Task: structure prediction
Amino acid sequence: MSTPSRKLHLIRPAAPPRARKQRSRPIAAEAVPATGTERIVDAITTAIVERRLMPGTRLAEQKIADIFKVSRTLVRQALIQLARDRLVKLAPARGARVAEPSAEEARQVFEVRTMLEAAMVKRLCATITPAQVAELRAHLKSEQSALARTDVSGRTRLLADFHVVLARMLGNEALAQLLADLLSRCSLIALMVQSARSAEHSFDEHVAIVDALERRDARAATKLMEDHLRHVEHNLHLDPRVRDLGQVLRPNR
Result:
């Protein structure tokens, strides 16, 4: 539900889990440093991933401009970037709002993640080093600590960051960037439909994946990752059971 260097790291609040794409040229003539746009983009992305900005929240240009002490032109550039990343929806006469992804979009995102991450751990089994296993074990301790503290925003970042850490261990920054983008979208989807009981289950599955990686058991690691992502998707309740209207409206007796 784990983005002004180009490194992706979900743990640090200043560096949210999103792809570090090459920024497009400013849409207006105003000469503004690229870091200004990225500062706004990163702040909004982090707030989404940490579940402080809910889907459908209105993003008023003037208010954001006042917060960052910049022009509305710069804010508009940031919102257009976020819209390209599908984290924000822009509508004529309605302004910008945090996107509200559909259940079908959620399925598509998890389908892509499963294809990428199953292949990723299979390959990592052949190259992983003891130092990388130790890094993963340290990350798992951080996840466990956040769970024990009931630190919702912290555990959200860490559980997502686990997957980007794996991607970086292959030395493929393009893969890490793509996965970080998908994780940002997953975090937004989770805001709408995620159940409250899946964080501990995700942690347990992360432990099992690291165990398989340490054994260099590619078959087990691949299956564990596929099962893990299937469980996360299932826990989002993308097809909530519709109750009978009579049961919902019938007065209690």
Q: What stands out?
A: Residues 1-34, 240-251 have pLDDT under 50 and may be disordered. The two ends are 41 Å apart (CA to CA). The chain has ten helices and three strands. The beta strands are 58-59, 88-91, 95-98.
